[in-house]
Amino acid sequence: MNMNNKVALVTGGARGIGRAICRSLANDGFKIAINYNNSEKEATSLKDELSAIAEVEAFKCDVSYSNSVKEMFAEISRTLGNVNVLVNNAGIAEQALFTDITDEMWQRMINTNLSGAFYCSREALKNMINEKNGVIINIASMWGEVGASMEVHYSTAKAGLIGMTKALAKEVGLSGVRVNAVSPGVVLTDMMNSFSEEDKEILKEETPLNTLGTPEDIADAVSFLVSDKARFITGQVLSVNGGFVI
Ligand code: NDP
Prior knowledge:
By secondary structure, the chain is of the alpha/beta class. It has helices at 16-27, 40-50, 66-79, 103-131, 142-146, 152-172, 197-205, 215-226; strands spanning 7-10, 31-36, 56-60, 83-88, 134-139, 177-184, 237-240.
């Protein structure tokens, strides 16, 4: 994709992995739409930082609501232009015994991690199909590939995202749109705050490359899949996990 004047939307872009993705796509030459839900301060500071190198705006939206997503896309079109690259990164994690998962916990997980990506992709595709050009990247998880005990709702949502990636890639390939997933292993962000230093050490030791991931490790993979270097790649899951799951 020629990135001149192209717009990249990163959901959950103000913090963690999303923040690193915004930085790398700004460096690649895209206009950046930072989506945030609660992290207004972080979104503003990232906007200020990236303004030096890119056209950038921040948009508040809870992606688990389809109407809010529609409004956000209209606002992005008005300010930056139509979205050409969509990175579905917004997500929540939670640990619970399967039998302790309530209806509310289940719905919140699916609505945020899976339906959010559906709502955003549906909006983005209207323009992408028109232009016969576009890229969608879904941030999955290795637990969506192999399943995690105590995170069945999370694993289910991420496995759904991988299924959506493959099926959608088949449907929109002829329209010039590529759809891929990046599947991170353990990455040091706020999402890992509930893990003790000891737990993180164990996870590190279980990783063949003997290190935990950084947000930049994930952002580099996204940057590659968005770029023209990945022009013949669609419907794939690129696992970025230091070898934790092979
Ligand atoms: P963080 O907890 O650091 O950040 C989560 C991000 O998601 C925040 O920017 C948050 O926005 C956003 N978000 C959550 N709910 C919503 C919502 N309803 N609407 C809009 N935005 C929302 O997590 P990470 O950066 O670590 O995770 C990013 C993605 O990577 C997630 O999809 C996660 O599942 C995935 N991942 C992470 C791994 C890890 O080890 N860290 C491993 C595998 C996958 P705000 O703060 O503005 O509310």
